Amino acid sequence: MSPIAAGLLLQLTLAAVAVTIALLVAPTWRSRAVGLTSAALAAVGLATGLVAMTGATGTLTIPVVLPMDALTLSPDRLGGLFMAVVSAVGLIVSLFGMSSARRGPEGSRTAWAAMPVFLVGMQLVPAAADSVSFLLAWEIMTLGSTVLLLADHAARASVSSAGIWYSAMSQLSFFFILAGFAVLAGATGGTSFTAMATVEPGSLAANLAFVLFVLGFGGKAELVPLHVWVPRVLPEAPSHVSAAMSGAMVKIGVYGALVVCVRLLPEAPAWWGIMIMVLGGASALYGILQASVSSDLKVLLAYSTTENMGLVFLGLGASMLLRSYDATAAADTALVAALLLAVSHAAFKATLFLGAGAVIHATGERNLDRLGGLGRRMPWTAAAFGVGAMGAAALPITSGFVAEWMLLQSLIHGGRLNGEVVSVAASVAMPLAVAVIALTAGLALMTFVKAYGIAFLARPRSPEAADAREVPLLMRLALALGALMVLALGLLPGPISEAVLATVASSGTGAAAGSAETAVAAIGVSGVALPGIGAVLDPLLLTVLAALVGVPVLIAIVLSAAKHPARTNDLPWGGGGSRARPRMQYTATSYAEPLVRVFDDVLKPTRDVQVTHVGESRYLVERVQVEQKVTDVFETRFYRPMLNLLQRFGIIVRHVANGSIHRYLTYSFTALLIVLIVVSL
Amino acid sequence: MFDSVYAQLVGLCTGALLLTSALMVWRHTLLASIRLLSAQGLSLAALVAVIGVQENEVELLFVALLIVATKGVGLPWVLAHESEAGVRAIKEAPRLNPTASLLIVTILTILSYIVVSQLIGLGTSVTSHAAPIGLAMVLIGFLLLISRRRARSQLIGFLLLDNGIATIAFLTSGGVPILLEFAVSLDVLLVVVILYVFAGRMRTKFGGTDVDQLRELHD
Description:
- The structure holds 2 protein chains of 2 kinds.
- By secondary structure, chain A is mostly helical.
- Chain A has helices at 3-24, 27-53, 77-100, 109-124, 131-149, 157-188, 193-196, 204-220, 230-236, 239-264, 270-293, 297-324, 328-363, 374-377, 379-392, 399-414, 424-456, 463-466, 473-491, 493-507, 510-519, 539-563, 588-598, 600-603, 633-653, 661-680, and strands spanning 60-62, 71-73, 416-417, 420-421, 521-523, 527-530, 535-537, 606-613, 621-629.
- Chain A has a 3-stranded antiparallel sheet.
- In chain A, a hairpin with an 8-residue loop joins β1 (60-62) and β2 (71-73).
- In chain A, α16 (399-414) packs antiparallel against α17 (424-456).
- Chain A is globular.
- Chain B has one domain (3-218).
- Chains A and B meet through α26 of A and α5, α6 and α9 of B.
- Chain B: It is a multi-pass membrane protein.
- Chain B: It is found in: Cell membrane.
């Protein structure tokens, strides 16, 4: 048995063991026992994924009693990459959960039994080599995550509502994916990926399947307008579960899209690429806009996930567009950038959600307007969250920066091949994409300055924040691991870039396979070069250079500050700073206020100002209360009307099925008669 | 056996089957329906025995005995035993008047002849020529299910439907394997017993088994 097959089998076994432990072990030991087993499950997944990334192959065949082909699990390099990514996230999430989900509904038997189910589902989707096992693993993943999400449903009504939205949107995604596979299977006569890849490019089946797949996987990858579940589900799930959902499960959606674009339907016409780019660009802009005005820490992170996935799809779309015009070097660079972005997003978003979990654990608050000053009380969490925020804002020394740099390089240079304009479509789309990324990057910076600054700096805005304590050791360990991953990917992007490159080279079409070798090259351990474009990035070298310049300057400032005596804080006139109270600080809402005004037309916020006067006076005000709500435009303008329409239809149709057995029997009888008459005609 | 005698015997049996089915739609008391069901079961057994003798299959004779035991004696006995004299005499207030029902029975019989001749062709053999009777029985059973209000009368419709399916099976393919026939018969017996006990409970609890009235429980 090959190492990969053994790894896959071990994952299945460990998942079964973990579920059994969750069901049997007493509550005091449950979180530790299941958490450790889940961590082991994730570690095996990580190892298997890494082995598959090196190009090793192995197949695990599971025979089934149903009259169909056996389920085949056989990860290729791309699958190995994603298996490794989701497993790495699963590992730190399990560690965090061991400590955070110890009691209460989050630590219940059901919740802990669902955890390994969720993990193994995510880890096996990238291993699937045929559509049936793909869909099976996909549903296992969805089932596990739904149960985990609903952990706290008894206490909060919003959780049940989130559960309904999540189930509905998941089933919608599943339906589209199933339909896509059905179309391909119908056209080619096989359910394995290799058989489906033989579909004729440009045929009706290929086009139809592509659109269905984009809708299906786009729903899981939180693309606008299928993202409506995100701002409900990710905030309401327990934090370690949100971290796994956003860090790992969403990547499975990306993986699905990649399987379609790279493996099943590699020869894409230009309009496919443009479609993906438009979807990605819209998601990126809309996501970051909503994130930047949100004052709920987890809603902010949820919308930021939409933004990042938008960027990944933007890269993917650009790659498809460029490939359709034979600009393969730039196409490969864009694809590598999209993959790197997905990998780095897994690292920093898992860290951020775990950081948010730590904040909630310590304060019970996720409203930024009631946080503040946590940096001093929770230094570990603050540091990890800070690193994650830097990654999300794509600042240097983090993984986000490398990926976005590469994406921008490919977009800026991609429009031209050997000095010639590739096509009109590309030369219009590329600058627009660059503009989208520029706007997104700016807003992302602002968003995460807000998230970090309001939550961790300044003074506490509520007693809960003032009394916060640093979280237990295991949670700190998980946070530190996540932050280290973000930094490692950012400072030493060489190895991961090479690995991703190998993935692209092996899974691409024949034309791409040769050129991918030259599209990206690693320099040493840390550097990345793009020979096709002529750009070089060495983060470690840059950091050392920056340190060489920055450290002496810093020392000089400190020395000169030491020479001058400290100024007194007592201002003669007593106003302002000397009596600053927490209420005088910026809040998350006030910080984002200018943005809400600028993007008023897109966000459509509702404001409510209530003024209470003192007694009868018109001029003396006792209190002013401002309430601002930013709703999701897609939900209020698109989903609500549609749901209302469906409901009205349902009420009408209720008369058809009134519960009378005679009526139902009459329906069947009439149907039988009609069938008989039709066949006898 | 001479072919002409065989054909006449098959015709007699299937005729009896159709006649009992039509009479079940016409008569409204439970007791009459039960007796008709018993007669129908015996006719079915006779049909199977005739086919068995003609084809020289001993197995079919055993099946015929089984049918006599279950459909001819067992089921009617259970039905009659479970319902007290008062219930047996109760007249069903049908959803369709007898004339309309008999008219529909005629239409259904004609339809089944048309359908079967189109679907499989009536063929030359005596048995396949009589196959439409089975389909007509199924359709009439369905009609009973729809038009009867009481749970017990609906059960009669269900049993008629089951007889129809068995008739089709014997006429077109010489019957299903004996084990399967045995299992199906027992299944039907079990269903009837359960439903009857259930209906009896419902009647003692709510005072009636009119399915339409039972809907109020759900509201």
